[in-house]
Amino acid sequence: MQGGTVYRHAVHRMTASSRLVLERAGWSPMSVRAFVGHQANQRILDAVGDRLGIGAPHRFGNIAEVGNTAAASIPLALADTAARGLVRPAERSLLTAFGGGLTWGSIALSWPAAVPVHRPLPAPAARRPAMAPASAPVPCQNGPQP
Description:
Blueprint: H1 3-25, E1 34-38, H2 42-52, E2 59-60, H3 63-66, H4 73-83, E3 92-99, E4 103-110
Parallel strand pairs: 1-2, 1-3
Antiparallel strand pairs: 3-4
């Protein structure tokens, strides 16, 4: 694959897709408080953020810490952002991705007011045997006889 061509394609498509969803949502890029992107290359995410005009304090990701986590990259970055309390409920968020097959997409959403609940796991139910106890073998009626 041609790295430079893919880089330019990713930056162009992620930027265009992001602008389109922001326009449809009626939001300006400056109103976005959380920008999270999927890509194995931080330079691509930085270029998209720069082209959109979203400042570095509003860009969240974890490529440097965990590397390319493929399809899990956006959910993991969102979980990390939420756990650190970096975005408040109702704040505007923009998610964008470019991945395998040269596909891309973006979504604009308001950060949910969800609060993680940590509960102890329920006690395991009484264990049943994996298999019913073995019974006496049944002689074969139709097979060869010794």
